[in-house]
Amino acid sequence: MQSRSSSSQRNMDLSPSTPQRSCSQTPLLKRTPSRATLSISQSSKKKRRFSIQTFDFETTELGAPPASEVAVEETDADRFLAVRGSTMLPLNTTPRTNRIAKSFGLVDDRVLNCGETSATPAQTKVRSILRRCASELFDTPRTMSAISAKSNLAVRKQFVMALDGPGISLNLFASPMAWSHSNCIGVAFKLNVYFQNLDTRVIVRLCGVPVTDGVVHSVDWGGITNQHILALGTTCGVVQAWDSLAQKQVVDWSDDDSPVGGIHWNGDLLAVGRKDGRVSLFDIRASKQVQQVEGHRRHVIGAKWSPDGRYLATGDQSGSVHVWDIRAKDHVTVNDRKVLMKHEGPVKAISWAPWQGGLLATGGLFPDGKIQLWNIHKPNASLTIPTDTNVTALHWSPHCKEILSTHGLSWEPWHVMRRSEPPAKQAPRTSFSNSMTVHAYPSCDKIVSVHAHSAPIGHACIGPDGCSIFTVSPVEETIKMFKVWSAPADKGKDDGGMSYKCAIR
Description:
Elements: H1 2-14, H2 35-46, H3 48-62, H4 95-103, H5 121-138, E1 161-164, E2 177-179, E3 184-189, E4 192-197, E5 202-208, E6 216-221, E7 229-234, E8 239-243, E9 248-253, E10 260-266, E11 269-274, E12 278-283, E13 289-294, E14 300-305, E15 311-316, E16 320-325, E17 330-331, E18 333-334, E19 337-338, E20 340-342, E21 347-352, E22 359-364, E23 370-375, E24 378-386, E25 389-396, E26 402-410, H6 413-418, E27 435-440, E28 446-451, E29 459-462, E30 468-473, E31 478-483
Antiparallel strand pairs: 1-31, 2-3, 3-4, 4-5, 6-7, 7-8, 8-9, 10-11, 11-12, 12-13, 14-15, 15-16, 16-17, 16-20, 18-19, 21-22, 22-23, 23-24, 25-26, 26-27, 27-28, 29-30, 30-31
C-alpha cells in the first residue's frame, strides 16, 4: 500500500496540469506550527491517503483554478468587518423583527447588515434621529410625587408668612416657639409669652414671669388631648402650664432652681431637661414632680418623646444622646447594652420618624455639624449626613420619607481643630448656611435647600398638618412660615387650618 501510494504521488507531481512543487518547500512542514496548524497537520497525517485522493478528485473533476491564480477583488467594504455571504442565513431574525428594523431605518445599518455600500451622511443623520426618538419612547421618566418637597418647597421657595420677633432669646439652646394641634403658635419674648390663632389671626399675651424667675427659655404645646395647654420653662428653673382658652395658669412647678433645657409633652406627662443633667417628669394632674431620670452629665438641651409615647430621647451639651424606656424607668437596652449615641457637639435637634418605629434623627452643633439617622433597635447601623454647620432643628415628614433640617453658621475644618467657632461675620457661606434643607431617606440625598433667613436659624417647629414649617431667626428678629410638603389626597380635606391666605407684613 505504501509503494502504490508513493508512485501515485510521483505521477501527480509530474502531471502538467498541476503546479510544480520544489523539494525546498518540504522543510516548511517542520517549522514549529501554531495550535491551529498543529491540529490540521495531525489530522492530515492520520488520513494521509484519503486526503490525497480527495485532492486529486477535486482538482480533476471540478477544475478549480490554482490558489496563486485567484484574482483579489478590490472593494470599498470595511476591512475590519467580515462581509456576509449571500448564502448565509440571518440569525435570530423573524418577519416581525425585519418590520421593526425597517420602520426605524436599521435594516441597512452596518452593524446588522455588513454590506459593502456605506450609508450617506443624510441617511446616517435620519437614522440617528429615529434612534433618539425610539429611545425617548421607551424611556419612562420617574414621576415626581406631589407630596414630596421637590414638588412644593422646590417650586415655591418664598415664605408664605412673616412675623416680627423682637426679643426672642439669642441662646442657641433655647426652644422659644411651638405650634399646637389647634393651629396656634406660641412664642416666648424675654419675660412674656404670646400666642396667635392662625385661623382668626388674633394675637394674645398669655402670661409673663417676674425678673427673678429668669427669662423664658423654652415653650411647648400639649398633645391632642391637651392642645390648649402651653408649658414654659425659664433659666431659673421655673416650670408652668397655662390654659390658652381660659388664659390662666393651670399648675406651677417652681420647686427646682436648676435651669430648664428642652421640654416636650407626652399626653399628660411633661419631660423637662435640667442643667445638672437630670430629666424631670411632671404630670399635669399633680402639683409635684412625679419622676426623674439621671444619666447625663451636662445640660440636657434636647428632649423628644416617640410617637407611641414609649421612649424618650434626650441630648445634652456634651453631645451624648440617651434613649429612655419610661415604663422600665431606665435606659433602652439592646443585648444588655445601653442605647447611646455620641456627637462631637451639643445635641438640641431630635426627631422621631412617625412612620417607622424606633427611627431617630439627631443633629449636632459646633464642632459636630452632622445629622445622624439611626434605629434604636439597631444602634450600630446609622446613616450620617455631614453639613459642617450648626443643626438647630430636625423634623420628619409624616407623609413621605423625607426629613427637614434647619441650620445656622458654618465653619472650616481649621475652626474645628482650634475648637473655636467663627464669628458671624467671618463664618464661610455654604449651601447649608442659614438654610432649611430637605433630605431623602434612606439615600440621604439633598432634595432642596432654601436660604430662609439672612441670619442663623435658631429654631423651627412643624405644623399640625405636617406640611408647613415655622423658622425662627433671633438675630434677624423674624419668624417665617414655609410650605414644605403636601398632604395625601385623602387627607386634603382637613388641612389643619392652612387654607387661609397669609398676608406678608
